[in-house]
Amino acid sequence: MDTATPAPTANPGATPAASDAGIGTHSVNAAVAPLFQPFAFGRHTLANRLVMAPMTRSKSPGGVPTDDVVAYYRRRVQGGVGLLITEGTTINHPAANGYPQVPAFHGEAALAGWKRVVDAVHAEGGRIIPQLWHVGIARRPGVEPDPSVPGYGPSAIVTHGVEVVRAMTQADIDAVVAAFAQAAADAERLGFDGAELHGAHGYIIDDFFWEQTNQRTDAYGGSLENRTRFALEIVRAVRAAVSPDFPIVFRFSQWKGVDYNARIAQTPEELGRILKPLAEAGVDIFHVSTRRYWEPAFDGSPDTLAAWTKRLTGKPVIAVGSVGLDGAFKVGMFANRDAFEVKPTDVDQAAQALARGDFDLLGVGRVLLSDPDWAIKVRDGRVGEVVPFDRAALDRLVV
């Protein structure tokens, strides 16, 4: 598939404003030129193919985005990123949250905070979507906002005689599906440019995908098709709750926070059995989360997980995983490594992979925390000036 082809949700007549992401009118370093082509996205056109990956920041006391959160996202648009995906923001369910000070996507105060974020990003010519999140079995009793609420998941987890994760009933499943749909509707109402469903990394949707965490014997467990049912119900409900041209992005991964070698699909055929129904249900773009975006996904083929996803579904794909860093991330790496080198050749190679059709958009994470101007420096061939990611970047929100 030609990477210049608009997404299925695109408006083919749309053209990017020259001021979009502050990058449209500048000359581009030839080695990375594919990364700076426009891309049709729902009702709009992204100025380039660079996407800020969702990264939990835990800087929203009481779940409400602050003035600093507004400034944080505004600054990344000013630095040249075409599309921002927010940090995970929790849907309206008692067990959706699992961490302190993460933002909520429900309640008058939190939604008002997100409206200010959207307006600030749009004022700079950028585009932004929220990542809608339910942490599933990652939650434990004692966590805000209500410490008495356990985690929720496909199957119960008992630790030292205490049920720390509740096996979801049909009513629980229906409530979570409805909460995702409401959050997506609120995203469109607030003026976001689409919405991402977090179906990766061992959170609630992924908990149903993975056999290790889904031990159910009903219609939501057992076969691959049954384990995909929960995700399909969410996608269908979200699709029905938003406009046809409001993009739905679905993030998935093979690996989990507790197991790098985990797989929800052992073969390309199994991957297709998961992803094709999701595409038919209403997913417009797949966000393929890997530790190293360039690594082969399955034995016997050099193709990456992003390339397989694009081939199997025919949908546009965001690839992400250790872009521009000197090593692939590890869970807890934020705390375990002081600094990372920026590797110019990695960005060049990513541009080549995009040009040959392996994926359509490139997700970039940690380096944008340390250097909001990363995209502009890459565009101008000044990668050597990039401020590498280090531990201190986690303590700062506004740079």
UniProtKB/TrEMBL annotation:
Q: Where is the NADH:flavin oxidoreductase/NADH oxidase N-terminal domain?
A: 35-326
Q: One of this protein's Pfam families, by short name?
A: Oxidored_FMN
Q: Which InterPro entries match?
A: Aldolase_TIM, OxRdtase_FMN_N, Oye-like
Q: Origin, by domain of life? A: Bacteria
Q: What are the recorded GO MF terms, alphabetically?
A: FMN binding; oxidoreductase activity
Report one GO cellular component.
Answer: cytosol
This chain belongs to the protein called 2,4-dienoyl-CoA reductase-like NADH-dependent reductase (Old Yellow Enzyme family)
Tell me the organism: Nitrospirillum amazonense
**Lineage of source species:** Bacteria, Pseudomonadati, Pseudomonadota, Alphaproteobacteria, Rhodospirillales
